[in-house]
Amino acid sequence: MSADTQRTHAIRTGSSPVTRRALLKAGAGAAAAGAASLALAPLSRIAWAAGSDEPIRIGFQVHRTGIGATYGRWYERTANAAATYLNENGGIAGRPVELVPEDDGTDPKRGAEVVEKFATAHGVDFVYGPLFSHVVIGSAPRAGELKMPYFVVSEGYHVASGSLNRYVFQPGITDVRAQVQAMAPWVAGNLGRRVTMMFPDYAFGYDHRDYFSAAVEAQGGSIAAKIAIPPTESSFTKYFPQVPADTEVLYHVMVGPGVLTFVKEMGEHYGSNRPQIFGFIDSLEGVDIASPGLSFLEGTYLWEALPRYADGLDSDANRHYRERVGINDEGASVDDPKDVSTNSHMFGCWETLFVIKRAVEESGYRSRNPDDVAALIEALEGFDSFDEGIPHPQGYKEFNGALHQCYGRQFISEVREGRLAVVHTTSIEDGKYEAEADYTTQSL
Prior knowledge:
By secondary structure, the protein is of the alpha/beta class. It has helices at 20-33, 69-88, 108-122, 133-145, 176-190, 203-218, 259-270, 316-325, 343-363, 370-381, and strands at residues 12-13, 16-17, 56-62, 97-103, 126-128, 150-151, 168-169, 194-200, 222-229, 249-252, 276-280, 301-304, 385-386, 397-400, 405-407, 411-416, 419-425. A hairpin with a 4-residue loop joins strand 14 (397-400) and strand 15 (405-407).
């Protein structure tokens, strides 16, 4: 571990601060007892002053309730694990990290209110954490008005499209456009070229609709039908008869509490006479693939951003991440094997917190005054890559500062005997597209 990352100044446990002096030994001991053979990504252009007991306060906008509650629970668990690890290893710029959670109810209006509360009532330095795209789109304008750095852990193309503002970043997880562009050649080349799409009827689903259809057509394929489904739908039997008979590949990406019902009803509708099926793991996040009624999925394929099963990405960094978050080799909680993680999304909470750390330390950020915020944003926009390691267990990423968006590899897995087996890994180049925006041209 480098000298920079061995600075162990403070830790914050729960809501009770502890002095830097008292924790100098404790932090060093924790760091040594942890993954000593793994190093944080090296930092350059370090500009921070001496650490202090004053925490870096980060508002954690979490979907504790609403259709995103399963994700929110695992996002919060991952964020807490990352904050704990940072505090055991010197915090951020020698200051303890304090997460301040607020439930946004997976609701756009409430999301904007939560951002306001973080700024005016909690006095946080930054806000991070939201997943669902309609919540991000509803919250981001208020973050811009408040000049609040806002780090989303979503997947929508809304950040990279340029439709938000200069204060919004998505540095820890790839966007839908890159994901589908990277996978479309494999789908068209191995499963079929006549595709029917089933997707949620809101912004995230529209990104799939627009960019996967374009990517399939670029491979010489065609779209047989595009079927939008309300994200709060509880039964899906009326939608499957809408799938054209000449469909070669049924592409599904569903979210929310009805995902298990969706997959079961798809199996009941098709039985053994089905097209090839390619889905996003979103349709099964938080769901045990070996659950009764899901045997229909055998031999189907799913996108994953970070494999649920440990053998899908057997690396030191990924093993360390899984241990810290508390997930077993099957991708479930070590405390409850029936509690299946949302592993293809929640890693973004871990990685984003380390990006914030790097930005604070390289910019010399101290408080949310205009000069420090501007320096932080300009430092972020100067990043071009993130190395694989403890901060980035999903893998090496490139970062486009003009778009505020990262690019990484994707995984395609096949359901085999009730488990997911990785059969293809894309490259970063596979998912790159021509930029349509440049946030750096906006004023701060």
